[in-house]
Amino acid sequence: MRTARSRTTPSRTTRTARAGRRAVVGGGAVALTVALALPVVLPGTASAHRDARPGTATGVVADPVELSADGARIGLSPLGAYATGVFDESAAEIVAYHARSERLFSVNAQAGEVTVLDVARPSSPRKLFALQTTGVRAADGSTIPAGAVANSVAVRPDGLVVVAVEAPDKVSDGWLAVFDAAGDGGALGAWRVGALPDMVTVTPDGRAAVVANEGEPADDFSVDPEGTVSVVDLPRRFTGRHAGAVSQRAVRTATFHAFEGARLPDGVRVFGPDVAGPDGSLAHRVSRNLEPEYVTVSKDSRTAYVALQEANAVAEIDLRRARTTDLWSLGSKDHSAGGQGIDPSDKDGGAAVRELPVRGLYMPDGLASYTSRGRTYLVTANEGDAREWGGYAEPARVKDLGDDGLAPVCEDSPAAGLLGDADLGRLNVSTASGLSADGSCYSELYAMGGRSFSIWTTDGDLVFDSGDTFERVTAEALGDAFNTNHTETKLDGRSDDKGPEPESVAVGEVAGRTYAFVGLERASGVVVFDVTTPQRSQFVTYVSNRDYSVSVEDAIDDGADPATALGTAGDLGPEGLTFVPASDSPTHRPLLAVASEVSGTTTLFQVDRLTGGR
Fold first, then answer.
1. Which residues of the chain have pLDDT under 70?
2. What percent helix, strand, coil does the chain show, rounded to 5?
3. Within the chain, how many helices (H) and strands (E) appear?
4. HSE of 406 in the Cβ direction (CA atoms, 13 Å)?
5. What is the pLDDT of residues 470-504, one digit of tens each?
6. In angstroms, how far is the first alpha carbon of the chain from the final one?
7. Which of 431, 528, 546, 429 is nearest to 485 (CA)?
8. What is the C-alpha separation between 415 and 319, in angstroms, rounded?
9. How far is Cα 124 from Cα 336, in angstroms, rounded to an integer?
10. In terms of C-beta density within 10 A (0-12 exposed, 13-18 middle, 19 or more buried), how is residue 489 classed?
11. Is 263 helix (H, G, I), strand (E, B) or coil?
12. pLDDT tens digits for 185-217?
């Protein structure tokens, strides 16, 4: 196993290019200001902030990309990384931190386990052992079998670790396994939960674990289980002596049955073939179609908010009653509005972000929440995702509409004259949305994902959207690697899909201000916004611990050893982020932990307070 080349101090110089613009979301409903002053990072001699503990940094590329707003209050410095040496197999997905033991827990889906890292020295994370879920006996009498997949992990401050585990066939019910963070890896038990438990979090008061059971269809689309949310009451104390506290009675399930048929709110997307559940029943079509992706919990631990990505919706769960109490559509954004442009083509010669007559479905993956002036806000990473199972495929290129049984673009559509490859022709859009009233043609085009992050009230009102900032920032910072993929370095390679693809978001407080950290799955790296005042959120910095001169997939195709190619590439495909406040940090400074699924790396960044910030 190899890691990226070591260094003790990054080097960089900057020059500043100023760019200001006003972004107006969706037909003028909300006016947003996005002002950027962007320095381009070049090799140089200025030293960066060092790890507070002595040692040599491992897993940090020689020249991390950094681009910051003028007067930024904080910066990010990569300190060190743990590398699995596994390429593009989800060997590092979700990450959680336990302060008392100074351990990171990183989900290795490829191995079906959770890697436990000692991060007392963040510059050199060290693997201790792995949490194994295979063979764990659950409270319902079942045993987690070989082939089960660990999907997510969360840690309670007292050291209770919960791991969401998917059944080998993914359409059967999964498990929530429990461990001791300070222990030696032995499981303390498990509960049975719903189908494909994809994400788990622990409520702020520590009394419950909340599990998003995604309920994806079988790969051949032969079976489609219901999406649900499990609420698991956790014991107040939990060590090896209390393993008997695992009881299946602690599990309650929130369903979407109350929103079936005509009770489904307008705009919530339920579409595609109607496929029976595992029991052969065609009841509850809405519930089988909805796929809970991510969960965040309010500060008072009473309410959970769940992202339903493909449905482009959010659900509200009353945790005391384990009941779904609300469901709403996130709607769409107007990419023809100022500041909301996209680069829609991989055949337009490079970075060409512009306003076009296309709408974007937000379709968030990652979801977080925070409070500002006593009000709770939701933060979404608007990745986008299509349904593609068996013979059903939702997306199609705009230029292919009108072929193979698909309806064409309406002749009077503003997009009708932009169907060439350099304009909208290459863009993948949804075939399930945008048809005219009579179904004869597409009156509107809907791309998947917003290429942005957004802030919402818990009533579903849009407060802020970052517009086209991500694409404009990465165009400035990455140059010939703009809209690259994570597996290879290729200019414009993802422009026709979802651009930089914001995957996940974490929120943390530094020196009295609140920041959103957004991971870009395809472009790689983390974008930081100051969200202290939600309506006036501002770009702060973009940092990527990736060497874009290394195209790993191409190197492997040319015969290189995957571990060798990965050893110099850095972080590819950030999937999970967790913020560590200074009070819990081994360096006594805030940290950001990032798990990258393509490179199989788990990396620690230090959040530096900068002098001279506004």
1. 1-57, 238-244, 612-614
2. 10, 40, 50
3. 4, 38
4. 23
5. 999 999 999 999 999 999 999 999 999 999 999 99
6. 43
7. 546
8. 45
9. 47
10. buried
11. helix
12. 999 999 999 999 999 999 999 999 999 999 999
Q: Scanning the structure block, which residue is given the tokens 């191409």?
A: 554
| Residue in this structure with the two tokens 């999964």, named with its chain if needed | 174
User: C-alpha angle 434/438/442, rounded to 5°?
Assistant: 30
Q: Write the burial class of residue 182 (CB in 10 Å: 0-12 exposed, 13-18 middle, 19+ buried).
A: middle
b/e burial code for range 168-178 (CB count within 10 A of at least 16 → b): eebbbbbbbbb
Cβ–Cβ contacts within 10 Å for residue 306, how many?
Answer: 26
Tell me how far apart the alpha carbons of residues 501 and 573 are, in angstroms, rounded to a whole number.
10
Taking Cα atoms as reference points, which of 28, 36, 17, 16 lies closest to residue 538?
A: 36
Q: How far apart are CA 395 and CA 288, in angstroms?
A: 20
Burial class of residue 220 (count of CB atoms within 10 Å of its CB; 0-12, 13-18, 19+): exposed
Q: How far apart are CA 291 and CA 164, in angstroms?
A: 16
Burial class (CB in 10 A: 0-12, 13-18, 19+), 253: middle
Q: What is the pLDDT of residue 49?
A: 32
∠ CA(428), CA(431), CA(432), 5° rounding? 130
pTM of the model: 0.91
- Distance (Å, whole) CA 222 – CA 214: 16
Q: Which 8-state DSSP code applies to residue 562? A: H
* Residues 496, 394: Cα–Cα separation, whole Å: 15
CB-hemisphere CA count at 13 Å for 284? 18
Residue with tokens 């997009």: 415
Two tokens, residue 520: 């870009």
Torsion angles phi and psi, residue 478, rounded to 5: -105, -15
- Could you tell me the two tokens for 146? 């070989």
Of 547, 538, 589, 577, the residue nearest 565 (C-alpha): 547
Determine phi and psi for 577, rounding to 5 degrees.
-130, 145
